[in-house]
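Holo prediction. Input below; ligand is 2-acetamido-2-deoxy-beta-D-glucopyranose.
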Amino acid sequence: MRAFIAGWLLVLAASVVTLASHAEAVPFSMLPKPHPLVIWHGLGDSAHSEGMESFMSQLKEAFPGLYVHSVTQDATSDAEDRRHGFFGHVNDQVQQACDQLAQIDELQGGFDAIGFSQGGQFLRAYVQRCNTPKVRNLITFGSQHMGIADLPACGPTDLLCRVAEAALRGGIYTDYAQSHLVSAQYYRNPKDPKAFAAYLDKNDFIKDINNEGTTTNATYAKNLASLENFVMLMFDKDTTVEPKQSSWFASYSVRNQSEGEAGRDPNPNEPTPLRQSSIYLDDRIGLRKLDRRGALKMELCHGIHMQIDPACQLKVFGKYVGTPSTGLDNAVATWIDHAWRWMLYNTTGLHVEDTAGLILTQTVLFLALFSVIRVSLALIVHAVRFVGRKRADDDVQSGPGPIHLA
Ligand SMILES: *[C@@H]1O[C@H](CO)[C@@H](O)[C@H](O)[C@H]1NC(C)=O
Ligand SMILES: *[C@@H]1O[C@H](CO)[C@@H](O)[C@H](O)[C@H]1NC(C)=O
Ligand SMILES: *[C@@H]1O[C@H](CO)[C@@H](O)[C@H](O)[C@H]1NC(C)=O
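Structure of the complex:
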């Protein structure tokens, strides 16, 4: 009988653990629906272009039951949406995305988010400024997190791009450009002291979300650090993004005009990596906090800008996107989850998504659950015995008293 109960408990614990943990261990049919997904397209693309539609239907095929929403600046016209990739005020566009996502029922329990190119820094702005509903994993492909130090070349037939380019020649830090030309709002060139001073004076998008101004917004760091994972992918042959390492938050170091030759950066053409940059060292936006729990991933994809080959896809899909939602998305569960991730990464250097990390997580979960069930069962048995004994005692006391015959 004891052996039977122990065996039964083992099975119970095992099934709860497998169901509550990650996808790899469980057959698909048993799983709850995958986390919903929001995507934000890149410059020159639109929410429902042929490419985006094909991408979304492939995802739905790969992950049955997946809900996908593509952020748009104009739900009635895809051509208008594409135009807004070049023209508009980014802060307004982010706010519009905030309003849009807040109204979608499917997203209210939280969602994963993929930003393509400039859509990546826009979704990051969503997380930092709004984040209602909450983003779980944020994935950015070839995004310009530290801005661009040069404007990307236009395709030979891309008229909109040429019009925007011509407008930019009129000045990047004019009030007009900073509120009407999208690329100007993440243009940041530390190599040119004059342009950089103008940037610090005029920019209200990339400077703001990177907390690079005179005031910093603590909410930004808090919200970004609340992500489960922030996955940044860089393309090794990216020539569109200058420097390409902006996708990993690297940037050229700021040139100081008053410093002579001696004070110059010995290697001004080598961007300073994130972990040596002040945005990280001062933890201005929560990146260091994410990194401490192994939640900041810098992945390299082989190819030119936005050439997402199968090896690159495998770094994201089925790992951070398309994983089942367990319904454990409340604050306490998130806190426990983050604490566990921090401990695991801090002591072993493993992420929960790694195979070894997953096995370790499941083992610990299993042992914890097994002990909890054992202890509660023991407590119940004790309680039953105690009550039984007490009742027996009570029975003795409350039994019929001596009978007095009158
Ligand atoms: C910080 O950002 C949040 C979200 O955008 C905003 O509500 C708040 O007013 C900002 N705080 C400051 C001090 O600017
Ligand atoms: C440039 O360098 C000088 C001397 O190192 C320093 O006093 C000054 O504050 C710097 N200026 C900027 C804009 O960083
Ligand atoms: C764990 O975290 C503490 C405090 O943040 C840090 O001092 C320590 O070096 C970390 N250990 C490892 C192995 O990363």
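The chain is about 45% helix and 10% strand. That is the main takeaway for now.
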